[in-house]
Amino acid sequence: MSATLAQLTAGAESAGGAAEFWVFVVAGAVALGSAIAMVALRHAVHAALMLVVNLFAIAVLYAVMEAQFLAVIQLIVYAGAIMVLFLFVLMLLGVAREQPVTAGGHAVHTAASLGLGAVLFVGLFAAVAVPFIGPASVCGAAGQGDGLACAGLSAVDSNVTEVGLSLFTDFVWPFEVTSALLVIAAIGAVVLGRRVEQPGDLIDRGGQARPALPDAHPPAGEPSRGHAPDAAGGGAVGAAAPAAGDDEEVGR
């Protein structure tokens, strides 16, 4: 009986592990695809919606890796409050059409983006992957194959407590830098989402001649513009000038 229960337990654990693996694969694919779509789309609202999908997929990844606190915070803070702020700003600016990418400075922007992306990738790789690879890693020979947990990956009683302690002790400066990056991202969303008039919509009034306005107080001896001359040199000031047809009638 005990052997049967052990076999059923082992089968359930293996099936659960396979299910977690496929959930992780699907969520990772959704996160990667939505991230690429967010960068590739030109419509600001569509890109923001792809970012929401990306944040939900990352929350699923957190939940699969048994980081339930981070998954909930991901949904409440990022997919909830921050994305509502972004969408509110975009809707307030009235972004309803695609904005073409300007040609000026395109090469400089591309080079800067690739350089900053490479620096970010190297930094993340050094912070995440390096401690867990190589013979001198925290998961070296002493922690592999003997059922012992690797250093730094030991189970803790409270995920919330460990996250709070790590956030405000070892990672306080990255936390502050992330706060600044969020502000920069909000400003960038405002800049990218603003309505830019097309060259055909703009009217250059600098070269247009202003229409002549009648003088309110003309100089002495000079009739005001738009009025007929007086009798000595025209009629009463303020009389309307005769039209061309009236001159012909007088001549007849």
Top-tier CATH class of the domain at 17-98 and 157-196: Mainly Alpha
**Amino- and carboxy-terminal Cα gap:** 132 Å
Uncertain stretches of 5 or more adjacent residues: 141-149, 228-239
Question: Would you tell me the overall average pLDDT?
Answer: 70
Beta content comes to under 5%
Q: SSE string, helix = H, strand = E? A: HHHHHHH
Provide the helix percentage: 55-70%
The main pleated sheet reads as: none
CATH topology of the domain at 17-98 and 157-196: Four Helix Bundle (Hemerythrin (Met), subunit A)
- Structural category: mainly alpha
General form: globular
Classified in CATH, the superfamily of the domain at 17-98 and 157-196 is: NADH-ubiquinone/plastoquinone oxidoreductase chain 6, subunit NuoJ
User: Helical stretch count?
Assistant: 7
Task: From the alpha carbons, calculate the radius of gyration and give it in angstroms.
Answer: 36 Å
CATH second-level architecture of the domain at 17-98 and 157-196: Up-down Bundle
How many strand segments? 0
